[in-house]
Structure formats: C-alpha cells, structure tokens
Design goal:
By secondary structure, this protein is mainly beta. The protein has one helix spanning 2-10, and strands spanning 15-20, 26-37, 40-45, 50-55, 59-64. The chain has a 5-stranded antiparallel sheet.
Length: 71
Amino acid sequence: MVKELHRAMTQNQHIQIIYLGSQGQTTMRTLRPLEIADGRLKAYCLTRKAPRVFVIDRILAVEPVVIRHAM
C-alpha cells in the first residue's frame, strides 16, 4: 500500500482510494497525495475539494486515476 502511495507522489499522479472512516463507513475518494509521515497520508482531496489527512491502515484499496484525453 505505501509503495503505491509513494509511486503516486513521485509521479505526481492522482489516485482513487476506498477509505474506512473512524465511524466504520467506507468512502471512495480521489486524491492528490502530498506527504507520507507517521502512518498518515496528507493529500488534497478532489472529492471534498480540501486538504485531508488519512490513516494509511484505514485505506482499503488504492488505484491510479487514468485521465483519458478526447481526440
């Protein structure tokens, strides 16, 4: 999991995550990862349009966001 997050940061790539919140709810978020420190991911959440901090152990899935350009 951390490896995919680091890769997204170094390649300046957006990711989509499934996150387990503290109340047990799951949400899908699109993020721009900024920093990993102390078991947490600091990111700009494109879903909420605000900076957020995510506990890495609560991230259930990560996948890169592929942006397709129209021709």
